[in-house]
Design goal:
Helix content: 55-70%
Strand order of the largest sheet: 4-5-7-3-6
Largest sheet: 5 strands, mixed
Order of helices and strands: HEEEHEEHEHHEHH
Number of helices: 7
CATH class of the domain at 79-240: Alpha Beta
Length: 302
């Protein structure tokens, strides 16, 4: 057998391998291009909010068709719990009408007046009240209250997010509930009175902490659900002297009644002092008698 006859089969096999590799590469490229052309581009209209889950576009290995995979890839955020408080001070033209209007506005917004302190003087009528309003109606009611005023002296609005505190307290409470459940299991297995009493003491302490946490959570829920408006409104009055000018006969009549009132007051004072008057009169009589007896006991001079 010659050398050429030995090498010819090797070259034939190598050529067949290269031909098959080229065919496979061409088929793979055509398949990828077809898959790329068949997939729809992602436009802003197909975008979804993270809260509803993200949309991903992938290529199926078998047929090259586009597959849409929907899933929530982000962790759940901390809940937002906002406590809103407003401090408002208003000057009004007519106090009585303004008070009626404020209460009507509060009733229209499903709010309640939880506290009220009224103060009257010679120069001002003033009222300080606390209004609890649903959180979604807070801004509306504050703006409506401003329309009652002729002058807004002060307006302060504060917001406090207690979401992290709420989650922390809730997590601690749930952990304590798990501890409570374990103590209840131990209580079922306890056989001796000492063991039962020890477990019950621990249960009592855990339950107190759970109740305190529940109370704090309820407080937060109430403050978040109902916002607070501390409203102070006042009407400025023209100062009037307590004793205006009077006529002569009016002053004379007033002096007569004042004298009569003074005389009555004098008798009232005397009546209140009757024990001292009796004691003083008795001491006076005793002292007078003593001086008289002393005078009589002295010898007379010739």
């Amino acid at each position: 057998m010659t050398l050429s006859s030995k090498i010819q089969p090797f070259f034939s096999t190598l050529l067949l391998v290269l031909l098959l590799h080229h065919t496979a590469c061409s088929y793979s490229g055509n398949r990828d291009n077809a898959a790329y052309k068949s997939s729809e581009p992602v436009t802003p209209a197909t975008y979804q909010d993270e809260s509803a889950g993200s949309t991903d576009v992938a290529t199926d290995e078998s047929g090259g068709s586009a597959l849409t995979v929907t899933g929530n890839q982000t962790a759940e955020p901390t809940p937002t719990k906002i406590i809103k408080t407003a401090n408002v001070k208003l000057q009004v033209k007519n106090y009585a009408q303004a008070l009626q209007t404020v209460k009507q506005l509060a009733a229209n917004q499903q709010a309640t007046v939880s506290g009220e302190n009224e103060y009257n003087s010679h120069y001002r009528l003033e009222n300080s009240m606390t209004i609890r309003v649903p959180a979604q109606r807070f801004d509306t009611l504050v703006n409506q209250l401003l329309t009652v005023a002729i002058y807004v002296e002060n307006k302060q609005i504060s917001s406090e997010d207690v979401g992290e505190q709420y989650v922390d307290i809730e997590a601690r409470m749930n952990a304590k509930k798990q501890v409570e459940a374990r103590y209840l299991e131990l209580l079922k297995k306890a056989g001796k009175i000492e063991e039962i009493l020890a477990v019950e003491r621990q249960l009592g302490q855990i339950r107190e902490e759970i109740e305190a946490a529940q109370g704090k959570l309820k407080y937060f829920d109430n403050r978040v659900k109902f916002s607070t408006i501390n409203l102070t409104m006042y009407q400025q009055l023209d100062y009037t002297a307590p004793n205006p000018e009077r006529s002569f006969w009016g002053r004379l009549k007033e002096a007569f009644f004042n004298g009569w009132s003074g005389l009555l007051e004098f008798f009232v004072v005397l009546i209140n002092l009757w024990p001292f008057l009796i004691i003083g009169g008795a001491l006076f009589l005793l002292l007078r008698k003593w001086r008289k007896n002393r005078k009589n006991s002295q010898p007379t001079k010739n």
